[in-house]
Amino acid sequence: MDDRELHQILKKEFGYQRFRPGQLATIKALLSGQNALSILPTGSGKTLIYQFVGRIKPGLVVVVSPLLSLMQDQVNRLRLAGNSGVAMVSSLLDPVSRHELINHLDHYHYLFFSPEMITNDWVVNQLRRVNISLVVIDEAHCVSAWGPDFRPHYLLLRQVMLALHQPTTLMLTATAPPRVAADLVAKLGFADAAVQIIRQSVDRPNIFLAVRQVASEQEKLTKLRQLVTRYGGRGIIYFSSRKLATKTAEWLSQETGMSVAPYHAGIDAVDRYRIQQQFMNDRLQVICATSAFGMGIDKDDVRYVIHYHMPKSIEAYVQEIGRAGRNGQAALALLLYSPGDEQLPLMLGQVKLPSDDVMTAYQQHQLELASLGDSAEIIAFYLDHGWQPNQVRHLFTNRWRATKQQVGQMLTYATSSGCCRQQIADHFGEQLASRPLLCCSKDQADWQKKLQLPSAGMQVDHDNKFSWQSRLRDLFNLASKSSDHLDS
Ligand code: ADP
Q: In what residue span(s) does the Helicase ATP-binding domain sit (predicted)?
């Protein structure tokens, strides 16, 4: 199929005039039977890629996705687009329906699985009986991720792919520096040469990048209230602590009268879903969230993403700020940093290992899971899959070293004087083609002067009386350390 035919299908079947960067190259690779790793920024249309292939190639498209809400959203979108035979196989499905579905896989065209579900032996055996046109691993960076919230079943996907005789595979992610890309390809059992990597720049020229150093928590809160009030629009504020996310949401809504809600994994699934929907439908202005919020959020008018706490890595930061300005309009990513903030991601990244004796006793069924401590489940995963205690210790020691390095890189971003955009590009091994006039600010930058000028890479909302540029200007007057407008 040549490019002209592919463009025709895009117009006729999907109603789009042109492919977005990265889409066509990925589709062509997959249609020719090549595996692909597509590293495309949030909002660039990754879903279209597998829908397109699913439309052309006969057989089942299997999508592995880490979040129920993400799967549900994709299922709804595919059904709305007129596709039939779309379903998700998840813990939400009652056992009888699940059984029924898995016994009739050939009735489906798109099936979504969690990593835990697809690594089940019975599911794999059933999948072996059907013709699979494509396996999609969404949010593929999770394969290479780490931390107490890591989903170890991602590591078993390699065996699943082998059992399924390595069907054509599409790995999708918004953020993967070369090191992570190589790691995830290897962990999924592919040779480097067997995967075509399609990479678009992580740079988002319409997002103004800012860091503000503050002296204390109190100053952070004061600044936050001022920013949110002055800024208006929809925004996400990220916290590393569930408690603080909840407390700050309450406080902000009292202080500002705005509609603010918390979102984190400690809130039950139904409420989380409700909050997400309220935000999507503009019934909430601000979300105070932990990193649990955002994957797959397809809201295009998020005007700012503020980090109250430093995230655990530059990859995580880029992923989270990528939720701002998806409509191409000017948006803001602001990191508030106060000395010592790096301790929190370090603390959260730490996994306390029990002694080798305890691990051995667990392996010999002499001790319960709980005896493995706070990170019991992740440690048990390795022990249950045949790892020896000394191998587990070695792995965790290496991971801890990597965690410290990642937090160190984030700390450099927060505290050094260099250009934010350049630092992110360097981290991802990219050359910056150009820098927008509204580039970044680390307290002292001359952004005010630049804001007077028409800006490249910036679309201004001309219908809006409060022009977006003047809002940004206000905002940074307010956010600047030396500002004398703090009480205005
Ligand atoms: P991602 O998964 O990369 O974050 P999505 O797949 O959610 O992005 O797509 C973001 C939006 O872009 C969706 O509303 C989708 O319909 C739209 N989109 C996808 N491809 C195109 C295209 N070629 N032209 C215009 N819009 C597109």
A: 27-194
| Residues facing residue 304 across a β-bridge | 235, 332
Distance 153 CA to ligand 1 centre (A): 28
- Shortest-distance Cα residue to atom 19 of ligand 1: 45
Pick the residue with more confidence: 443 or 31?
31
Q: What is the pLDDT of residue 477?
A: 52
117 neighbors 98 (Cβ within 8 angstroms): no
Ligand 1 atom 21 nearest Cα: 45
330-338: average pLDDT? 93
What's at 219, amino acid-wise? E
To which H or E segment does residue 48 belong? helix 46-56
Cα distances from 355 to residues 360, 362, 437, in angstroms, run 9, 11, 55
207-266 per-position pLDDT tens digit: 999 999 899 889 999 999 998 988 788 999 999 999 999 999 999 999 999 999 999 989
Among 465, 463, 467, residue whose Cα is nearest residue 451: 467
pLDDT in tens, 250-306: 999 999 999 999 999 899 888 988 998 899 999 999 999 998 887 767 788 999 999
- The residue whose CA has the least distance to atom 20 of ligand 1 is 45
Nearest-angstrom CA–CA distance, 414 and 2: 47
Give the residue among 204, 79, 57, 77 at the shortest CA–CA distance from 132.
57
Ligand 1 pocket list (CB less than 6 A): 16, 19-20, 23, 40, 42-48, 298
Which of 8, 26, 47 maximizes ligand 1 atoms within 8 Å of its Cβ, making it the mutation to test the pocket?
47
The DSSP annotation for 79-120 comes to HHTT--SEEEESTTS-HHHHHHHHHTGGG-SEEEE-HHHHTS
